[in-house]
Amino acid sequence: MSREDFIELYSSLGATVTGDESTSQAIRINPLVTDESTLIETFTSQGVELEKIPFLDQGYRVVSSPFSLGASIEYLLGHYFLQETASQLPAQILSPSCDDKVLDMASAPGGKTTQMAAYMRNGGSITAVDVNRRRLYALENNLERMGVRNTVVYNMDALDLPDEPMFTKVLLDAPCSGNYVTDRRWFGKRKKSHIQHNFMVQRKLLTKAVRLLEKGGALLYATCSLEPEENELNVQWLLENHEVRLDDIDAPGTPGVIEIFGDQLDESIKKCRRLWPNDAGTQGFFLARVVKL
């Protein structure tokens, strides 16, 4: 598919993107180590200008900074995480508490894992799984840096976990095709075969996630893909093949699309959220909150 083909597809889904959108740097303040007012006061004295992102609990857009925010003392001490705006939404929507047993199925490098630990106030438990050993170094470093103490890390494929309902909440930030906002070469290298491969892997992961959930437990499915095969069509497949329902989501964006490629999808898919880069000022993103019946 060409760049024009992708833009035409997105237009058919209701978007008015140009393919040239970009996103701003953002941070998430870490309440396990500091508080917002203290860090903002420190940043202000250092000449850093932040703007609160209204739909995020601890998220701020970086307006300007006289130095690299990935090399400050406060960063090294875990006071904040450099985390793109949309990627702060999955953990916020899943909203785990100190009573939860959480599985993060593709956890490295740890932005969402450390965010969930903060919501849980280091209570409960998080099982963080990632198949890529090299990425685990970043995950383990970030867990230590951010003061996380409730997380156990496993270097394994989440598909190899035993089929036992042992978690109250599952986060599946699925491996996906990505989008053009975070990769300027995206249009030139993305092929339809990549999307087809990804949605098949995602369906296996979704099946595993449901099997691992206790009844009444919640799954947050997220991708940074704009492709319907990896988003609404996967959710439709999940509704047809598993005993689940969708929850409403309190987040910016537009409702999930329910007419795709001439097919009518389940009406409840409108409860999902799409973040189009031209509307939300973020990278492309998709969110679905699923409850096991």
Topology:
Layout: H1 3-12, E1 26-29, H2 36-45, E2 49-52, E3 59-64, H3 73-76, E4 80-82, H4 89-94, E5 101-104, H5 111-119, E6 125-130, H6 133-145, E7 151-155, E8 167-173, H7 186-189, H8 192-212, E9 213-223, H9 232-241, E10 244-246, E11 254-255, E12 259-260, E13 263-264, E14 273-275, H10 277-280, E15 285-292
Parallel strand pairs: 5-6, 5-8, 6-7, 8-9
Antiparallel strand pairs: 1-3, 1-4, 2-3, 9-15, 10-15, 11-14, 12-13, 14-15
Describe this structure in words.
The structure is a single chain. The model has no long low-confidence stretch (mean pLDDT 97). The chain has ten helices and 15 strands. The longest helix is centred in the C-terminal third of the chain and has 21 residues. The chain is α/β, with parallel strands linked by helices and 293 residues long. Strand 2 and strand 3 form a beta hairpin. It has two domains: 60 residues, Alpha-Beta Plaits, CATH 3.30.70.1170; 208 residues, Rossmann fold (3-Layer(aba) Sandwich), CATH 3.40.50.
CATH superfamily of the largest domain: Vaccinia Virus protein VP39
Named CATH architecture of the largest domain: 3-Layer(aba) Sandwich
Helix content bin: 25-40%
> Mind telling me the C-alpha Rg?
19 Å
Total helical elements: 10
Short description:
This protein has helices at 3-12, 36-45, 73-76, 89-94, 111-119, 133-145, 186-189, 192-212, 232-241, 277-280; strands at residues 26-29, 49-52, 59-64, 80-82, 101-104, 125-130, 151-155, 167-173, 213-223, 244-246, 254-255, 259-260, 263-264, 273-275, 285-292. It is an alpha/beta fold and 293 residues long. Strands 5, 6, 7, 8, 9, 10, 11, 14 and 15 form a nine-stranded mixed β-sheet that branches. A four-stranded antiparallel β-sheet has the order 2-3-1-4, covered by helices on one side. Strands 12-13 form a two-stranded antiparallel ribbon.
